[in-house]
TrEMBL record, chain A:
InterPro entries: MetI-like, MetI-like_sf. This is Sugar ABC transporter permease. The lineage of its organism: Bacteria, Bacillati, Actinomycetota, Actinomycetes, Micromonosporales. PANTHER family: ABC TRANSPORTER PERMEASE PROTEIN MG189-RELATED, ABC TRANSPORTER PERMEASE PROTEIN MG189-RELATED-RELATED. Keywords: Cell membrane, Membrane, Transmembrane, Transmembrane helix, Transport. GO terms for cellular component: plasma membrane. The keyword Ribonucleoprotein does not apply. The chain crosses the membrane at residues 27-51, 95-114, 126-148, 168-185, 206-227, 261-284. One of its GO terms (biological process) is transmembrane transport. It comes from Actinoplanes nipponensis. Pfam families: BPD_transp_1 (PF00528).
Length: 299, 311
């Protein structure tokens, strides 16, 4: 049905350094050094926040900035005590917005991508192209119009206001379509139909499991996109109980302009906020199908 | 869902309704959170508030049709042009540096004989897991003279401390945050497509005496072109809507105005000045420009990026 051969390899790049080509034994030192400089540049701010989060309010401004101090427990205590532990509420809210939003997005993208790849129906390419055009209208540009609209129906300052606009991911649908076309063979679907399975069941029991690696990728993308979308919750929410951690830390930072002691709370808050996502990435990176992004799945 | 397909024929032609049913969630979300907001913004952008009398009475403020007045005002506003020019300069600085570094790192990672490649790859990718706001705070603190290790270091060496938040250099301070946040993701995308190139291509080139540099320039980069185009489009879209980084750095310095980027100006119009009509017009303008720029770019390359499945 498409230009894709059914045998397109959906290869696992869990270990990209696997010796798939014969490498000369000689070490390439210049490239190694250049890459290490890049690595240090990328780790520098994280190393700094690690060191800074161990320092109390006064030593933050006086001691050598990469030398660790011993105030991490105290800073953590300050963070947890701030405004009745609201920081942890922010973290939970973030998990809700990004986690639930990402899951719903992966599901909607999976279903749409599967349908666009595996069914022939009138308007298929029109629907696909219209949905795909959404990629070009980025979420951030939409945040203020979405706010104006939701304000009209009184939905601002609710969890829905942040959750709902983040579910649709045109890019996720595009990825899921490519993935479904490559990973779900038509013969399997035909066999399931011959056995009398309903279309819904075929998607849920046959296609969905086959698309799982692709959907993990869509989930991670959308998780990061929601977690990155600062403007939407920033304009939608005014009740700090519903803030995601990004908006919460931003308000703390702004208060820090007048209360410098808050800076050490902000810094330890920043550290805690990035740890879960870094952990998530280090564990899930082997399931990433980034060859989807570059279009390599198409062979 | 099962009921939707009862009575279909063996050939599956009667399950005609199913695709539409399956696409319904996406279409509903598309309409509610993309089409409607854009439509409503267009509607608002064509209206304005008319104040009669002193504007104190209950019915003294009425919304009336304004035609293109909001657009004319927006386009005549030097602040908009200032911010648009700034974003243009920002994009022209950011994109070559970020994508150039991403390409360089990807090519180096793909080179045989590189040591610690896995460590470097993960370290450079790590900032992708850090949202723009947090990244801006991290760098913001590193820039802030009171806590900056650079100021500290310079002080120890007896040099004057740098102040990246100074009016002249704050532009590059913001570019640096975006480079830091974006280089790893683009590197991984390019690297992944490099790994998908069959190794035999290189073998024969190497046998012909091709050096690694020639290999990169003559074979790898041309083969990477579709991926480079994709990463450019996505980076372009991200660039036009820059907001979070300057807003955050603004909390630490006075060098950034409230209208530093177009989106910041729209935000200020909507929330600080309560002028949703101008904000709507600004939103429509910025969405339109984004659409035109990225669609124009995509049209150039549609065949490679999206074409193969459709026809």
């Amino acid at each position: 049905m498409t230009a894709l051969a059914p045998s397109v390899p959906v290869h696992d790049d869990a270990d990209p350094r696997a010796p798939r080509r014969r490498a000369p034994r000689r070490a390439a030192w210049l490239p190694t050094v250049v890459l290490l400089i890049g690595a240090i540049y990328c780790l520098l701010p994280v190393a700094w926040v690690l060191a800074a989060s161990t320092k109390g309010g006064s030593s933050l401004f006086t001691s050598f900035t990469f030398a660790p101090g011993g105030d991490l427990p105290a800073n953590l205590g300050d963070l947890s005590a701030y405004s009745g532990g609201i920081y942890w509420k922010w973290m939970l809210n973030t998990l809700l917005y990004a986690g639930v939003g990402g899951l719903l997005s992966a599901l909607v993208s999976g279903l749409s991508g599967y349908t666009l790849a595996k069914y022939r129906f009138a308007g298929r390419s029109v629907i696909f192209n219209v949905l795909l055009a959404g990629v070009l209208v980025p979420g951030v540009t939409l945040a203020i119009p979405q706010y104006l609209l939701l304000a009209e129906v009184g939905l601002t300052d609710t969890y829905w206001a942040v959750l709902l606009p983040n579910i649709l991911s045109p890019y996720g649908i595009y990825l899921a379509r490519i993935y479904a076309a490559a990973a779900v063979p038509d013969t399997v679907l035909e066999a399931a139909r011959t056995d009398g399975a309903s279309e819904g069941r075929i998607f849920g029991r046959v296609a969905l499991p086959m698309m799982l690696p692709g959907l993990v990728t869509v989930f991670l993308f959308q998780f990061v996109a929601i977690w990155n979308n600062f403007l939407l919750p920033f304009v939608m929410l005014s009740d700090d109980d519903k803030f995601p951690v990004t908006v919460g830390l931003f308000t703390l930072l702004n208060q820090g302009q007048t209360v410098p002691a808050l800076y050490s709370v902000v810094i330890v808050g920043v550290l805690i906020s990035i740890l879960p996502l870094i952990a998530l990435f280090l564990t899930l990176q082997r399931y990433w199908r980034l060859d989807l992004v570059s279009g390599s799945v198409k062979g | 869902m099962a009921s939707a397909v009862t009575g279909r024929s063996r050939r599956g032609a009667a399950s005609r309704g199913v695709p539409y049913l399956f696409l319904a969630p996406a279409i509903v979300l598309f309409v509610l959170f993309l089409l409607l907001p854009v439509g409503y913004a267009v509607h608002l952008s064509l209206r304005k508030v008319k104040v009669s009398g002193l504007g104190l009475g209950r019915n003294s403020r009425t919304e009336i049709f304004a035609g293109l007045e909001n657009y004319r005002t927006a386009l005549a506003d030097p602040e908009l042009w200032g911010s648009a020019g700034r974003v243009l300069a920002y994009g022209l600085t950011l994109l070559p540096i970020m994508l150039g570094l991403a390409l360089l790192f990807a090519l180096l990672l793909d080179r045989p004989g590189v040591r610690l490649a896995r460590f470097s790859r993960l370290a450079i990718f790590l900032p992708y897991a850090v949202p723009g706001l947090i990244a801006s705070m991290l760098w913001g603190f590193l820039y802030l003279p009171a806590v900056s290790p650079f100021t500290d270091l310079a002080g120890r060496l007896g040099l004057p401390g740098p102040d990246p938040l100074d009016g002249g250099s704050v532009f590059f301070a913001i570019v640096n945050i975006a480079v830091w946040g974006g280089v790893g993701f683009n590197m991984i995308v390019l690297f992944t497509s490099l790994r998908a190139i069959p190794a035999e291509i290189y073998e024969s080139a190497r046998l012909d005496g091709c050096t690694e540099l020639q290999l990169a320039l003559r074979i790898k980069i041309p083969l990477l072109l579709p991926s480079l185009i994709m990463t450019t489009v996505f980076s372009l879209i991200a660039t036009l809507q820059v907001f979070t980084e300057p807003l955050t750095v603004r909390s630490l310095t006075n060098s950034i105005s409230s209208t530093w980027t177009p989106l910041m100006k729209i935000y200020r119009d909507a929330f600080a000045q309560n002028d949703i009509y101008s904000a709507a017009a600004g939103s429509v303008l910025i969405a339109g420009v984004t659409l035109v720029v990225s669609f124009g770019f995509l049209r150039l390359v549609q065949r490679q990026a999206f074409g193969s499945e459709d026809r």
